[in-house]
Each structure stands twice: as structure tokens, then as C-alpha cells.
Amino acid sequence: MTYSEEAAQTKPVTIWSSSRVVDRLAWPLALVVGLSLFAVLYRRGYDDPYITYRYAANLAAGYGFVYNPGVATLSTTAPLFGLILAPVALIGWSVPLVANLIGCLCHAAGGLALYRLGHLWRDPLIGATAALLYLLFPLPLTTLGSETLPAMALALWSFVAAVQGRQWLTGLLTGMLVWLRPDGILVGPFALLIALLTDRRWRDWRRWPWRAALLWGAIVVAGIGLAWLVYGAPLPSTLYAKQRQALIPGSYDFVDRLLVTLTGYLRQPFYWFVFAVSAVGMVAVWWRRWWLVPIGWAFTYGLAYTVLGVAGYFWYVAPLLIGLAPAFGLGIRVLFDGLSRIGGRRLALIGLAVALIGSAVWLSGSVMRIGQQIDQRLVVYRAAGEWLAAYTAPTATVATLEIGIVGYYAQRPMIDFAGLVQPDIAGQLGPGHYIAAASYAIDRYRPDYLVLYEHIFPLLAARPDLAEHCPVVAEIPDPRYPAPLTIHACRW
Questions:
Q1: Per residue in 214-236, pLDDT tens?
Q2: pLDDT (tens digit, 9 = 90+) per residue, 142-191?
């Protein structure tokens, strides 16, 4: 008996059945959802993705796929995303805006993938409710503009392709995912496991997913070889920098960030419901074991980041939703079945409607609030970058702590106090904080300009000699703080 036949015999009671009409409407509906999210969130952004945007802009300008022209360092964790955005920069469109559009459309596609998995694994209710939480849960949407949402969608569609037995597509998607994010290497084994177990293919070695595995391996090896050839290293230099940042006293590691994130959500009663239902789903997954794949991937992903010992950032935690959303769907299935046994189908439908409509309303409100919470650094750093582009020489070097937005708009050689671009600066991070790394960078590279928030990064207080060598030449007001962002011209 094949997997499909076995699943059909054990098919649980559901409140709807698959239809060609629903399948035909799925992609148009996903497009509408993606565009709706974009309409709300298009102004969102944060500093880190602008490093990748600058790679795209430099490639489009003919400088090569580098951050600082003439210096071959892989400082982006998303090379494929940068390559995708390079034609956007070449055309002259807004790279940050198009990146946000891509992110919203990919997020909608990721929700659709969960819906499709629900149908393929014979329980559309689980897939649909997992998709609902996935689409509207706030955390991943705060990463908009980066490669996180496209990577999450690609991971889920890799699982869909594997279930469908589409080996070439499975190999292609899992391989591309590694180019999109190095941690995408974790998806390949899970997708291959699905392909191996579906319809009991493991019983006949000739039906094993050899083609998918070979294509996946070939794309991964090609990426590693190309990175080694061009940049002299197979992995982005940012991995070392993030590991060093985790050693700074008071910094969060991955587990710290996860706990802080959970604590923040649990301050709101609604998320007690979400996590309680998901906890029930984690138990129920034993009876619907195919869902162990995305949940197991999320567990493996979290374990990998814990072992890597990198600094904890919110965009590292966001992909865990790939495991949380199916757990929530499984919990809703248990709730529906329990109410059916207690009070019949009508009570179950009422309970389901209350749970899902209430969740949709609450989460939609959260999405709207995210759209209104715009990081002021997008404005202040952009103004600083544009000032540098207008009033400094093209070869002038600029040093600052957060190089993303400033560097993208300045288009000047950047010196990075956080060590993302210059690995030797990252080596100074640790007990000496960012101040020690900044002091080393200034002595080593002698920048022409400094961009500083002195009241939150007191570099001048630690280095009084800089006041003489680097007087203030511009101030950028920031409504969040009483003191402005300052630009200093240095004369050594």
C-alpha cells in the first residue's frame, strides 16, 4: 500500500474537501495577500539588509559583487538575494522598495506552501490554520527587506516538491536555498527525507531521491567553490563577526534572544492561547508524523544557531515559525475534534470560527501596528549617507558602527566597527566592547570621516584625541534622542 492510499484510508474528518476551484484560486489569493501586506509594510526596513543592497548596487555599477570596490570580501549572508536585486539597481528602481515587495510576495507564497502541505498530507484544516498563523504572526514580518522571508518560503516549497516526488525541483530549490542563506543547508536533508519516505520509496533503493540529492549537492559544491575562488573563503565573514559579537558583555546569544522574544509575546494574553494550542499540537504530531518534518527542521535550526554561538538577533529567531505554525494547526485540529466529540459538529464549527476569526483579527491588528512602526534610522542614516555622497570625495573612507543604510546611500569605502566588512576588526570584539574595535579600526585604517552617535556610543569620550583630529562638520537631527547624529572630518 502506498503512502497516498494509506493516508486516504486514515483521512480525518475535515470541514472542507480539496477542489480544483480552490487550487485555481490559491495563487491569485496568495498574490492578493502579498500585495496587501506590501501596502501596509512597504515603508519597513532595518540596517542589516542594506549591506546586501550595496552588493547589488556595486554589481550593477560594474564594480563586481563586492561591498567596497576593489576588496573581495563576502560580507553578505544572502548572495543570491543580492544577485536577484542587481537588475533592479541596474534599471534604477528603488532596491529597498523592491526587496520589500519580494519579501511580501514570498511570505504569501510560504503560507500557500503550508496550505498545500495540508492537502498533500490529507488534512487541509491543519494546513490552512498553520498558514493563517504563518502569514500574520508579527515576528517574521519585522525582517521585511532581508532574505529571511524568501528563504522561509523556499524551505517550505522544498518540502512541497519533495512530497510531490518532483526530484529535480526539490534539488534545485534546496540548492538555491543555500545560496540564499548558508543555514539553508539544513533544509536539504529534511526535504530528501520526505522524498525518501513518501509512498515508502525507502524500500527500493532504485526509487530513492538520487537526482534530487545529486543536484542539491552539485549546487552547494558549486557555491562553495565559487565563494572560495572569488573571496578566498567558503563562508561569509559575517559568521566570525557575529560569533565575536556574542562575546561582548551584555550581548544576547541565540537562546537569550529567543527567551526575550517569547517573554515579550507572553505579555499579551492572546499569545498564551497561541502557544498553549501549539503545545497541544506538539503532542498531537505523534499521530500525524509527517508534520514532524517542519517541526523537526525548526528544532534543528535552533540547535544549530545555539551551537554556532552567534549573537542573537531577531531575524535569526523568525524562521522558527516554520515549526510553530504547523504545531498551531495541529493544536487547532485537536480542538476541533475534541469539540466534535463533546458537542457535535455544530459546536466544533462554532469553536473553530471563534478561534480562527479571533486570531485573524488580533494578528491583523499587529500587522497594522508593525506597518506604523518605522525605524527612525531609515531616515537619519539615509540623510547621513546622502550628505556624504554630496560633500565628500568618492575615495573618502567613512567609519561607523552600523554601515548598512549609511554605506548604501553614501557609496563611499566603509570601515565597519562591528567587523562585518573587515574581519580583522571583528577580531577586536569581545570583552573590549565595540569601543575597543572602533579604536583599533581608527588607528589601523585612519578614516577620512566618522559617523557617530556619541551619546549611545561614546567613542570620543574614550578617545579624547579624536576631538582634535576629527571635528564635527555636519549634524543630523534624530527625534528619538536629544543629541544629533554627527559627521566628523578627520585630518591625521
A1: 999 999 999 999 999 999 988 89
A2: 999 999 999 999 999 999 999 999 999 999 999 999 999 999 999 999 99
Domain assignment present for 481? yes
Long-range CB contacts (within 8 A, 24+) of 390-394: 391/474, 392/448, 392/449, 393/448
- How does residue 87 score in pLDDT terms, banded at 50, 70 and 90? very high
Amino acid, single-letter form, for residue 375: D
Q: Is residue 6 in some structural domain?
A: no
What is the Rg, in whole angstroms, of the alpha carbon atoms belonging to the chain?
A: 24
3-state secondary structure of 253: strand
C-alpha cell at 79: 548572495
Number of domains in the chain: 2
* Secondary structure element (H or E) that encloses residue 229, with its range: helix 210-231
Residue after which a domain boundary falls, among 351, 369, 387: 369
Given a contact cutoff of 8 angstroms between Cβ atoms, the answer to whether 137 and 327 are in contact is no
Nearest alpha carbon to residue 464 among 430, 433, 444, 439: 439
Judge if 346 and 426 occupy the same domain: no
Instruction: Locate 80 and state its grid cell.
Output: 543570491
Higher pLDDT, 207 or 282: 282
Question: Average of pLDDT values for 205-210?
Answer: 83
Pick the closest to residue 150 from 140, 163, 138 (CA basis). Answer: 140
The answer to whether residues 337 and 469 belong to one domain is no
pLDDT at 342 over 60: yes
Query: In this predicted structure, what is the pLDDT of residue 178?
Result: 96
pLDDT in tens, 355-401: 999 999 999 999 999 999 999 999 999 999 999 999 999 999 999 99
Q: Are residues 338 and 422 in the same domain?
A: no
Q: What is the largest CA-CA distance in the chain?
A: 81
CA angle 303, 291, 17 (to 5 degrees): 155
Residues 326 and 394 in one domain: no
348-376 b/e with 16+ CB inside 10 Å = b?
Answer: beebbeebbeebeebbeebbeebbeeebe
Q: Could you tell me which residue, 21 or 322, shows the higher pLDDT?
A: 322
Rounded Cα–Cα distance for residues 22 and 164 (Å): 18
* Residue range of the domain that includes 387: 377-489
CA distance 7 to 361: 33
What cell was used for 468? 582634535
Mark whether 67 and 180 lie in a shared domain. yes
In one letter, which amino acid is 314? F
- Give the separation between CA 476 and CA 387, rounded to whole angstroms: 9
H or E segment to which residue 292 belongs: helix 292-308
Rounded to whole angstroms, the Cα distance separating 239 from 310 reads: 7
Which amino acid is residue 296, in one-letter code?
A: G
In the predicted model, is pLDDT for residue 3 greater than 60?
Answer: no
180 shares a domain with 144: yes
